[in-house]
Design goal:
Number of domains: 1
Structural class: mainly alpha
Number of helices: 5
Helix content: over 70%
Mean pLDDT: 84
Strand content: under 5%
Length: 148
């Protein structure tokens, strides 16, 4: 009797990612970054003479936040430069937190896969006398793989 493959599906992966975000408190960080980003864009729009609309202010901060720095817009006023610095620092911190959340997500995903594999293996061990030759060979192959 073959055991069903119990991989973590896309829906469960999404729930797991949300759980990791909630547990780490990263959701509040991301929302705070978005709020600060929008406020900084408003400051750039109001104080920078070369920025004529909110879309250009968002574009400028996107170039700054992603460290692309295309050079088509630059901050020249003290308030614009301060908003740029604040947005840059927040982007660096948020990127670091986001990276940690993604690493934690993949660690959790891998742990769930290992737990599932171990459960399947233990189920087969409990039914050892009932297994056919191909199932026994599969178990032996998996044990050899684990030992490497």
């Amino acid at each position: 009797m073959a055991t069903k493959n119990r991989e973590v599906g896309p829906f469960k992966k999404g729930r797991l990612l949300l759980l990791v975000i909630k547990r780490s408190g990263a959701g509040a960080v991301f929302l705070s970054f978005i709020g600060a980003y929008l406020v900084c864009a408003m400051l750039v729009l109001v104080f920078e003479p070369g920025v004529s609309n909110y879309g250009d202010a968002l574009w400028f901060l996107w170039a700054v936040s992603t460290t692309v720095g295309l050079g088509d817009l630059t901050a020249i006023t003290p308030v614009g430069r301060a908003a740029t610095i604040v947005c840059s620092m927040l982007a660096i911190g948020t990127t670091a937190i986001f990276t940690g959340v993604i690493v934690d997500f993949f660690n959790e995903l891998r742990q769930k896969q290992l737990d599932t594999s171990l459960t399947e293996f233990l189920d087969k061990l409990e039914r050892l006398p009932e297994l056919d030759k191909s199932e026994l060979e599969d178990m032996a192959r998996r044990v050899r793989k684990l030992r490497k």
